[in-house]
Amino acid sequence: QALAPLDDGDRVVERGVEVEVVELVETTEPVGVDVDQVGAADQRGMHPGDDERRCLHRRLEGLPPGLNARASMTVTAGLVSALVLAGPLTGTIFAHGSRDVAQVALTFDACSSGGANRLDEPLLRALEAADVPATIFLGGIWMERQPGAVRRLAANPRFELGLHGWDHRHLAKLSDALLRSHFEKSRGVFRALAGRDSVLFRPPFGIALVRDARLAAEAGLVTVTYDLASGDPDPAFTKEVLPRYVVKRARNGSVIIFHLNGRGHATAVALPGIVAGLRTRGFAFTTVGAMLVGR
Prior knowledge:
Order of helices and strands: EEEEEEEEHEHHEHEHEEHEHEH
């Protein structure tokens, strides 16, 4: 939805809160903005217009604690493709979206674990055919071994991409220095292959301590876990069981985890039923980034 033309100093109402437009910038790059911490989250977001994109500073309510410092995002056709967060993020871990909104985020991990550094091609084809937004977290070693897959994922505007550690070790086993280096290496590989940056991070095994989330925030990354594990690595979760399990347990704001590196035994054949079942229950599909900024 295009924004109406605005000038600096104009006042707009966003979700019932009147705010001032502090600056409009004609650029496609995310721009950070310092804001007062008033218990709500401020953002400056890029929104597509008819012939241009403009940058609007607005205040949004409903983000998790710790995300009310400094933020910007890029939105293209309603899909968040980049999110930049800074400020006093001291261990924030995002596990689910608003419980008041009937939407879910399908997420997929491409883990750098053992010999399973492959692409589940049938699952990716099923996801592409489903034509729903998805957030995909890519391991560092997995990206090195699957450069073509990273480029393919990055080229799909429905997919939001994040990082998933370097070698899938438990973060508790890593020193501060090593964890920082893993962040740097993973982002470097991602930038080289995807042609853009990534600011979302899912820890291996979905386990992050406050220290891990703090170091991620210092590196400009938002730590994302989940609130609904699909169970797809379990062979007992067949193509019949998996849709029933996921659809029954999904809640408003659920972040649902699957696997894209071959660990999901029946995920590819079950995905159409999962998508259909969630739609029947009234859920819309979104990305983690969109949930973070309250869209």
